[in-house]
Design goal:
The complex is a heterodimer of chains A (234) and B (292). With 234 residues, chain A is α/β, with parallel strands linked by helices. Helix content of chain A is 39%, strand content 26%. Chain A has 2 domains: 158 residues, 3-Layer(aba) Sandwich (Rossmann fold); 66 residues, no CATH class. A 6-stranded mixed sheet of chain A has the order 6-7-8-3-9-10, sandwiched between helices. Chain A has a 4-stranded antiparallel sheet with strand order 2-1-4-5, covered by helices on one side. In chain A, helix 3 packs parallel to helix 7. Chain B starts with a helix and ends in an 11-residue tail after the last helix. The relative contact order of chain B is 0.21. Classes of the chains: A alpha/beta (234), B mainly alpha (292). Chains A and B meet through helix 3 of A and helix 6 and helix 7 of B. The complex binds adenosine-5'-triphosphate and magnesium ion. Adenosine-5'-triphosphate (ATP) binds next to helix 1 of chain A. Adenosine-5'-triphosphate binds next to helix 1 of chain A.
Chain lengths: 234, 292
């Protein structure tokens, strides 16, 4: 479905990613883990078209995505839930969700999608007229995910969806992600909760200073001594 | 003090304030959404006023019709101007600075063109009903003032509904609050910036016509208007439409009252003293929530 080939991304002089290659096939749930500053967000942003590609290619269903701007990419169903949620703080919950259905391919279905999101996240229905900025962290993450669902994702990339949440709220979010995958949405999950992430994903990539150092089935990664020492503190 | 005089100046203040609000909303949006401080905003308002003046003078076109026509015409012109002048400078490191310098130049060019065409004499918009007035008890409302106020109210309401109810309007707000997320969900920032700029310029034109119904104007009047624009935006909060509208009213009332009770020389002193006080104590405006 998506393949990233030898991707290099620079911020000025600094190489944030060096020749990174990953492969995601339809229906899969893939994990991307790595320490702070290892380039996880950069990889997602490169796929979303937010940061320019220095070298390499991004291929989506036999089509090169290099140079596509984000507003065109989302029409293909490549949707990102950005790090820190990035809601529209002075818009209501409902307006935030509606903005998820902004792109023309999904706009006509917006009301229908909205009802679906409200039925999956009843708490958002109660708060639909509240400003998004006034919600709790867990509720904000739900808005962020609801907004992404409004865009009818085929590949959903989640950047640290449990950041700053209580263990209970985090577990809830992970459960929702698993449900979404069951419904057929392909998932790329970035998270610092390495244990939980590897438990629900099938394949994983490990980034270190912009370089892919490890990849494999999540079962294998869970047993890997390097993963254990670096990320699980064992 | 005379209660009738207070009330009368309060009402004129509110009328004036509504016009400031219409002029200010666009200024605030370009600033908030695009980080462009559009110094020639007032000059476009003045261009609207002069166009309405000539249309009235030579073709007998009522300022209400001129205001309605100016909106689509200025919208198209501003789209071209955006592509030609504004879009290139959005690549600048310091957009605010670059945009101020560029549009300062544009304001001077516009001012000189207006001085060439319409000469430096002060002008007034005098539609057929200009000497009429609505008299309610002891109060006295000149028709042109009522028209200017009414048009401004319509303009602001339309802009508010556009921003609140349409997809494009929501994209304008989204792009201002969280540009990166807006892009991720399909908003083309260049397109939205162009629409924002064009809306701002066209409401400036309509606002200029409204202001011309209340005050006389000359080619350099936009300089003073600009200072009021800054005042309205700083009090109301950048990018905040409702805040800007309320700030316009507040400032209108303050100037209205000071005009009635203070010697002429004191009016600007009070108004701009207020601007400084605001900048010192409430640099983000008076409203807590960045509303709409
Ligand atoms: N806009 C930017 N300009 C310059 N450097 C940047 C920018 N964004 C990220 N970087 C740098 O690129 C590197 C990778 O950053 P990135 O945000 O991709 O890491 P990350 O793995 O997502 O980290 P975290 O876990 O903290 O979110 C870091 O060294 C960071 O400082
Ligand atoms: Mg990150």
């Amino acid at each position: 479905m998506l393949s990233v080939e030898n991707l290099t991304v620079c911020y000025g002089q600094m190489k944030a990613l060096r020749s990174v290659s990953i492969e995601i096939s339809a229906g899969q749930m893939v994990a991307l883990i790595g320490a702070n500053g290892s380039g996880k967000t950069t990889l997602l942003n490169a796929i979303s078209g937010l940061v320019p590609i220095e070298e390499g290619r991004i291929i989506w269903e036999d089509q090169s995505l290099n140079g596509f701007p984000p507003d065109k990419l989302c029409r293909k169903g490549i949707i990102q839930v950005p790090e820190g949620r990035k809601l529209f703080p002075s818009m209501t919950v409902e307006e935030n969700l509606i903005m998820g259905a902004y792109h023309p391919n999904v706009r006509k279905k917006a009301q229908e999608s909205l009802q679906k999101v409200f039925s999956s996240f009843p708490r958002l229905a109660d708060r639909r007229r509240q400003f998004a900025g006034s919600l709790s962290g867990g509720e904000q993450q739900m808005v962020a995910m609801g907004r992404a669902l409004m865009a009818k994702p085929r590949l959903l990339m989640l950047d640290e969806p449990s950041l700053g949440l209580s263990p209970k709220a985090a577990a809830e979010i992970f459960e929702i992600i698993r449900e979404l995958n069951k419904e057929g949405i392909t998932i790329l999950l970035v998270s610092q909760e390495v244990m939980q992430t590897l438990a629900i994903t099938t394949y994983g990539y490990v980034l270190e200073n912009g370089v892919l150092v490890l990849q494999g089935d999540c079962k294998q990664l869970q047993e890997d001594p390097k993963v254990k020492t670096s990320y699980l503190g064992m | 003090m005379d209660a009738v005089l207070i009330f009368q100046s309060l009402i004129s203040g509110i009328m004036m304030g509504m016009v400031y609000a219409l002029l200010g909303v666009g200024f605030s949006l370009t600033w908030g959404v695009m980080h462009v401080i559009h110094i020639s905003h007032g000059a476009f308002g003045l261009l609207g006023a002069y166009a309405a003046y000539s249309l009235l003078q030579y073709f007998g076109v009522d300022p209400i019709a001129s205001a309605a026509m100016s909106v689509p015409l200025l919208f198209l012109m501003a789209c071209g101007l955006y592509q030609l002048l504004i879009r290139p400078i959005t690549r600048a490191k310091n957009i605010i600075m670059a945009s101020m310098i560029l549009t300062f130049g544009l304001a001077i060019i516009l001012e000189n063109i207006m001085a060439l065409i319409w000469k430096a004499d002060p002008r007034v918009l005098t539609p057929a009903y200009s000497s009429g007035a609505l008299i309610v008890g002891p109060f006295y409302f000149q028709y042109p003032h009522l028209v200017g106020f009414g048009l401004s109210l319509v303009g602001i309401t339309a802009l508010y509904l556009f921003l609140k109810k349409t997809y494009t309007g929501m994209a304008v707000r989204a792009a201002w609050q969280q540009p990166e997320a807006a892009r991720l969900y399909g908003v083309n920032l260049f397109q939205i910036s162009m629409i924002t700029f064009a809306l701002a310029v066209s409401t400036a034109g309509a606002g200029g016509i409204c202001l011309a119904l209340l005050n006389s104007f000359e080619p350099h009047s936009h300089n003073l208007w600009l200072i009021y624009l800054f005042l309205v935006v700083i009090v109301g909060g950048v990018g905040n439409v409702i805040g800007t509208a309320l700030a316009g009213l507040i400032i209108g009332v303050i100037t209205g009252l000071s005009m009635a009770f203070l010697p002429f020389q004191w009016v600007n002193l009070v108004t701009f003293g207020l601007l400084m006080v605001f900048l010192i104590f409430r640099p983000h405006g008076i409203f807590k929530q960045e509303g709409l």
